[in-house]
Amino acid sequence: MNFDIKTEQLGDETHVISLAGEVDLYTAPDFKQQLLQVIGDGSKNVVVDFTDTTFIDSTTLGVLVGGVKRLRTNEGQLSLVCSDRNITKIFEITGLDRVFTIYGTLDEALAQVGAASTPPG
Fold first, then answer.
1. How far apart are CA 72 and CA 54, in angstroms?
2. What's the CATH code of the domain at 87?
3. What is the value of pTM for the model shown?
């Protein structure tokens, strides 16, 4: 089974969770635990990076929906990074592309998250 997860903290309220390999019924619990951990630690902006992910299933979608609900109660946001057409298509088919903001690159996502978390001057 090919799966890896890395979490990086950027500032006080922003975390990037990078997933690699297959995120499915067997590996999604690890992802869920990591996501709940960063939200529990006070992160308001969570970026999930699917750049190196080869497969996701409905279990993964459930983890993401649960995460976005928790973040919204804290006025936070969950953003996704995905350039794989097969994976973005899953979000489109399920209508979740209207729930999540999906960026093509991590740099794009971080630029938007940074803009969103910066108070107007």
1. 28
2. 3.30.750.24
3. 0.93
